[in-house]
Amino acid sequence: MEKWRAAHRLLRYSSKNLFDRQLNPNFRNSTHLSTSGMAYNMNRFVGNLWGVHCRCLSSVVTATQRNPLFSTINSDDIRYFKEILGEKSVIQDEEMLDAANSDWMRKYKGSSKLKLQPRSTEEVSQILKYCNARCLAVVPQGGNTGLVGGSVPVFDEVIINVGSMNNIISFDKVSGTLVCEAGCILENLISFLDNQGFIMPLDLGAKGSCQIGGNVSTNAGGLRLVRYGSLHGNVLGLEAVLANGTVLDMLGTLRKDNTGYDVKHLFIGSEGSLGIVTKVSILTPPKLSSVNVAFLACEDYISCQKLLLEAKTRLGEILSAFEFLDTHAMDLVVRHLDAVRNPLPPSHNFYVLIETTGSDETNDKEKLEAFLLRSMESGLISDGVLAQDINQASSFWRIREGIAEALMKAGAVYKYDLSLPVEKMYNLVEEMQIRLGSAAKAVGYGHLGDSNLHLNISTPQYDDTILAEIEPFVYEWTSKHQGSISAEHGLGLMKANKIHYSRSPEAVQLMVAIKKLLDPNGILNPYKVLPPSLISQS
Amino acid sequence: MEKWRAAHRLLRYSSKNLFDRQLNPNFRNSTHLSTSGMAYNMNRFVGNLWGVHCRCLSSVVTATQRNPLFSTINSDDIRYFKEILGEKSVIQDEEMLDAANSDWMRKYKGSSKLKLQPRSTEEVSQILKYCNARCLAVVPQGGNTGLVGGSVPVFDEVIINVGSMNNIISFDKVSGTLVCEAGCILENLISFLDNQGFIMPLDLGAKGSCQIGGNVSTNAGGLRLVRYGSLHGNVLGLEAVLANGTVLDMLGTLRKDNTGYDVKHLFIGSEGSLGIVTKVSILTPPKLSSVNVAFLACEDYISCQKLLLEAKTRLGEILSAFEFLDTHAMDLVVRHLDAVRNPLPPSHNFYVLIETTGSDETNDKEKLEAFLLRSMESGLISDGVLAQDINQASSFWRIREGIAEALMKAGAVYKYDLSLPVEKMYNLVEEMQIRLGSAAKAVGYGHLGDSNLHLNISTPQYDDTILAEIEPFVYEWTSKHQGSISAEHGLGLMKANKIHYSRSPEAVQLMVAIKKLLDPNGILNPYKVLPPSLISQS
C-alpha cells in the first residue's frame, strides 16, 4: 500500500491539443484523398493521416443523392445576403470555404460555395426565412469538431456558422445559471466560470474549438457526464430558429418549469436538423477545490464492474470520472506516444482511472484512500497509484486520452462509439477478437461509468474483408444487447441509415413526422440523422 | 455554538400521511360542494375542508364547454371493453367511479361513467385504438394525487387507470437502472430499491399513492431535485402508447444514447395529453448512509440567498435539501399543528432547513459543522440547531411539510406554485403583502435550492375582492420577472389558459402543432395543458 500517496490539489490535464490541428503539421498537410464526389464513395474512403495508411471511423454509408428539389445559389441570393449581413459576413473565398467544407478528420467533404456568419438571432432568422422560401438547403456549423459528418455540407448546402455570436449574456451566481450565445467556445465559458467560482457541467477534449450551440445540438457527452448528467438535465432553456425563420424563445433560466410541453428537448441532440440553436441557458455547478486521480489495475473485467459499483456506493457524491482501458490500449499508448509510461508493472489485463472532485481536501482524500484500501484487500484492485501532484494526475489522464492518437499511429483503425449494458460491454470486444482472429486487434476502452465503450479495431492497413467481418456484426450485436450504436457522437451523415439498429420503427416514424412538421422543405442539415429515404417520402 | 450537536444517522420524516386520506376522517367526510357542472363554476368553488371555510388553489378557470365532436359511450363500447379486458377491469360501479372522478382535494369533479383498468401495454393499445376510432375522449389516471385537475375527467371522458400495471421488470445493480411498469407506486419502488442499496432520484409527499407513470407524465419535482435534478435527466427511457394505439418502445436503459431525436422527452411533463406512459426506465442513485438535518434562522432574505450560495459551494456534493420559510409560515405551523414547536427562539424573520446526504458520517458531519460555524461567524445565520437523532430530524421536516396543512386550518387560502429567480423570489411576497394590506397575510416558503416559491395568501374567509387583487397580478409579476407560473405542479385544467404567462406564442404554437400531430382527434386528456381554444382551431 505504499503506493497510495497523499494527493494535492490537481487540475485535470487538458486534452485540447488532441483536437488542435495547429499542433500537428502532419495533420494539416496530410494527403487529402477526398473529392467533391465523396458522398458517393465515402464507404471507400481511405485517409492518410499521420503518414500511415489508415481508415478512420469506418462505416459503410449508403450512397446519397443530392435532393433535386433544392435550389442552387445565384447572384441574387448573394446580393440579398450581403444586404442583410454586410460584405464581410458573406464568405465566398475558396480557401475559407475549403476549411468549412471539411470536418477536422478530413473524412467528410462538401462543396458549399457560400458560408454565412450571422451576428444575431434576427440575422439567423432572416437567412433561414429566405432559404426556406428559396428552397436552399443549409448546414448549421459551430466549431466543426464533430466525428460523424454532422457539421459539414454533403453537397452545396449554404453553411451557417454562428461563431460570431459569442457573447455571454448573463450569469447568476446564486442559481449558477449562465446564459450565452450559441457561438461561445466551450473553453472560453470554462475560463469565464472559473473566475466566478463555477464550472461547466460538460468538458470535452475538443473544448478549445467546439461551441456551446454545437454541444447542445449534438447533446455532447464528455468527461463530466458521470457526475453531472447529460445536457437534457443541465440545459435550462434555449432559443432556436426554425426552418421558416420563426424564433422560438424558450430561454428560461429556471430549474423547475412545468408550463406545457418541454419542447426545448427536441433541439438538444437533433444535430441542427430541426432548428438552429442561437442562445443557451445552462445550469453550472460550483467549482470544488479538491481533485484526486488514481490509476488502478484490475485482473479481469468483472473486477472493473464490481469496482464501479463499489465506487458509486463508497465514493458516491465525490466520484467525477470512472474510465477504463484494456491491456491492448495500454500497449498502444506506451509504444506509440512519447513520454507516456505505464505507472504500474505491465502485467495487468485492465486499468481503471478514477477521479474524485469534492469540497474538502482532507475528507475527500481519507474517503478515497479508505475505498482504495478496501478494494485492494477484497482483491478487486491488484495494484494502483494515487497522483500526488498535478503532473502525475496529468500523466494518468494522458494515458486514457492518448489512446485515440496511439491507435491512429499504429495503422488502420475502425472506430465505434457504443453504449452497452456494463456487464455485457467487454463481451463484444472479446467476441470481436475471436471473430477477427490474428488479422486484427480489438481494443476496448471508454467511459465505464457511463456504460460507454469505444471499440477500436486496429490493423496494419485497411482491408475490405475485415470491414465486412466487423459490419454489420457490430451493429447487430449492439442492437441484440439493447445497446446504442451512437453513445455520444450522434448519427450525422455517418450513421443516418443505421438508426434502426437502436430505435424502433415507430420511434423513427415519429422522428420523421416531427422533422416534416418543423422543416417541411427539409432544408435543415439534409441527409443527416434520419434516413434520407424516409424524409423524401410524402 | 453549543447548539451544534453530533449528528446520528437519520432518515427523513415521511410525509405520506399528509396525502393519505385514510388518516383524516374529516377529509374523506368533508362536505363536498362540487357538482357535475363544476367545470363551469370552478372559479367560484369554495371547499370546506378540515371543517373551516376555505378555498384551495385559487385560480380563475375559463368556463370550458364539452367538445361536441366526442362520442358518448354506449352498450357496444362496454361490450367491446369487457371482451378485451374481462369483466373485472371494466368499472361502472358508481361509488368506485365517484372516487376516480374526483381529485384528492375534491376541487375538481368529472362525470365519467366508465373506468378501465388495463393490465398490459397491449391492452392500453387496444383501448386507445378503439377510443380513437370511436372519438371517445379519455383521461389517463395514475395515483390521482395531482393538484391542478390533470388526472380527473372534466366531463364524461373514459378513465384509463394503469394501477394494475405495477410490475418491476428489471433492476441492474451495476448501472443502477430500474425498469418498471407505469402503475408502480413510488413508495413501493423506494422500498424495493432500499433493499438493493439504492434510492429513487425523486421523493414526494404523495409517495404512498402516486405512481411512477404519473410522476413521469407530470415531470414531478419533489424533495430531491436540488441534488439529483429533474426527470428529464433521470428517465433513461420509456414506453408510451399514442392516441391511435401505436406503441412507442423507447425503453432504453443507457445513460448515453444519441440515436436520433430524443422523443421520450415529449412524454415527460405533457400530463398524458400526448400519450399514455406504460413503462419507465430510470437511473437510481446508490443509497448513502449519512444524513444530517439542520434548522437555521436568518434575519433577512438576502442572508438566505447568500447562505444558499455558500451551501452550494461548501457542502456541494452532499447538499440534498435547502428549504426556506418565513416567520408567518412558522407562526401558522406553531399555532395550528399539534406537537409542532419552533426549535429556536421565535424572534427570527426567516428559517432555513438544510439536509445533507453522503457516504461518510464522520466526514460529512465535520463538513457540515465547519460550514455552520463559518456561516454563524459571518452573520448569515443568527441561530440554529443540528438534529441529533431521527426524532429531531423528523420534527424539523414536520415544520416545513406542515405548512400547507396549517394554512388550510387557518382559514381561506389562495395557493400559487411559482418558479422565480432566487434574488427576486421574496419580493413578490412583500409586494403582495403591501398590495393586500391588512385584509390578508402573504406567506412565503418553498424549495429555495430550486428557486421554487410556494406563495400562499391566507385570509379568514374567501373573498372575491381579494382574488381580484391577487390575479392576474401574481401571474403578470411572475411573467415580468421571467418566472414560471407552474414550477412543479403542471398546468392541468387549472392553468391551461394561463400558459401564455410563461411561454412565448411561438412556443405554444409549436406545442399545439405537436399535440395535433400526435393526437389529431384530441382524445387524450382534453381541456388540459393547452388552451382548448387553440386545439379546436383547424
From TrEMBL, chains A, B:
<dbReference type="Pfam" id="PF01565">
    <property type="entry name" value="FAD_binding_4"/>
</dbReference>
<dbReference type="InterPro" id="IPR006094">
    <property type="entry name" value="Oxid_FAD_bind_N"/>
</dbReference>
<dbReference type="InterPro" id="IPR016164">
    <property type="entry name" value="FAD-linked_Oxase-like_C"/>
</dbReference>
<dbReference type="InterPro" id="IPR016167">
    <property type="entry name" value="FAD-bd_PCMH_sub1"/>
</dbReference>
<dbReference type="InterPro" id="IPR016166">
    <property type="entry name" value="FAD-bd_PCMH"/>
</dbReference>
<dbReference type="InterPro" id="IPR004113">
    <property type="entry name" value="FAD-bd_oxidored_4_C"/>
</dbReference>
<dbReference type="Pfam" id="PF02913">
    <property type="entry name" value="FAD-oxidase_C"/>
</dbReference>
<dbReference type="InterPro" id="IPR016171">
    <property type="entry name" value="Vanillyl_alc_oxidase_C-sub2"/>
</dbReference>
<keyword id="KW-0285">Flavoprotein</keyword>
<dbReference type="GO" id="GO:0051990">
    <property type="term" value="F:(R)-2-hydroxyglutarate dehydrogenase activity"/>
</dbReference>
<comment type="similarity">
    <text>Belongs to the FAD-binding oxidoreductase/transferase type 4 family.</text>
</comment>
<keyword id="KW-0560">Oxidoreductase</keyword>
<dbReference type="InterPro" id="IPR036318">
    <property type="entry name" value="FAD-bd_PCMH-like_sf"/>
</dbReference>
<protein>
    <recommendedName>
        <fullName>D-2-hydroxyglutarate dehydrogenase</fullName>
        <ecNumber>1.1.99.39</ecNumber>
    </recommendedName>
</protein>
<dbReference type="InterPro" id="IPR051264">
    <property type="entry name" value="FAD-oxidored/transferase_4"/>
</dbReference>
<feature type="domain" description="FAD-binding PCMH-type">
    <location>
        <begin position="108"/>
        <end position="287"/>
    </location>
</feature>
<dbReference type="InterPro" id="IPR016169">
    <property type="entry name" value="FAD-bd_PCMH_sub2"/>
</dbReference>
<keyword id="KW-0274">FAD</keyword>
